[in-house]
Amino acid sequence: DTGVSQNPRHKITKRGQNVTFRCDPISEHNRLYWYRQTLGQGPEFLTYFQNEAQLEKSRLLSDRFSAERPKGSFSTLEIQRTEQGDSAMYLCASSWDPGEKLFFGSGTQLSVL
Amino acid sequence: GENVEQHPSTLSVQEGDSAVIKCTYSDSASNYFPWYKQELGKGPQLIIDIRSNVGEKKDQRIAVTLNKTAKHFSLHITETQPEDSAVYFCAAAPWGGATNKLIFGTGTLLAVQP
Lengths: 113, 114
Hints:
The structure holds two protein chains of two kinds. Chain A is mainly beta. Chain A is built from no helices and eleven strands. Chain A has strands at residues 5-7, 10-13, 19-24, 31-37, 44-50, 53-57, 65-68, 75-79, 88-95, 103-104, 108-112. In chain A, strands 2, 4, 5, 6, 9, 10 and 11 form a seven-stranded mixed sheet that branches. In chain A, strands 1-3-8-7 form a four-stranded antiparallel sheet, with no helix packed on it. Chain B contains no helices and eleven strands. In chain B, strands 2, 4, 5, 9, 10 and 11 form a six-stranded mixed sheet that branches. In chain B, strand 6 (56-59) and strand 7 form a beta hairpin. The model of chain B has no long low-confidence stretch (mean pLDDT 94). The chains are: A mainly beta, B mainly beta. Chain A binds chain B through residues 4, 6, 31, 33, 40-45, 48, 55-56, 58, 91, 95, 98-99, 101-107, and chain B through 4, 6, 32, 34, 36, 41-46, 49, 89, 91, 95-107.
């Protein structure tokens, strides 16, 4: 078990392009979360999954953002028509069950030019 | 909704001294209070957590205290070492129910001077 894995580690894109990030949670963890972190701030909740079901989405998650977790394993976060304000670190985290410890991956650093 | 305030934003200590970081929360339903350490270019790493049925928890040089009445909790690091230098985040949530989203503080940059 190597922990939560995120790819890519860095992504540079031009405004208006679409980007997709991948997260592989710790094996057998049922809960998977996406957070966003901007410079000098703590992580902010975006959305979470219980197995393959997306149970909650933050108001931060505009219509340009979509997340999936097919088959309850890995998850993808897609941002369409990127804007400069989307530049941030996108963090994935997983936990065994509700109420259990939350473990984070190393994140994907997105820069929108 | 929950709001978590964290102080100080920066903290500089000499190696071997103690460091204390304090957080307050607003939602009385919060029952889970983890602390994360984040090094440059890495994701947050869970270092210690406490639940509301416990007032204090210790793990080697790290301890966390919780005052539910005052809605504040603190991280204590004793005998600090240069490798303790990082950004520390507190968080709070009503954990274990239907909604599980940690609300984080704004972080404390700890610098341990050799």
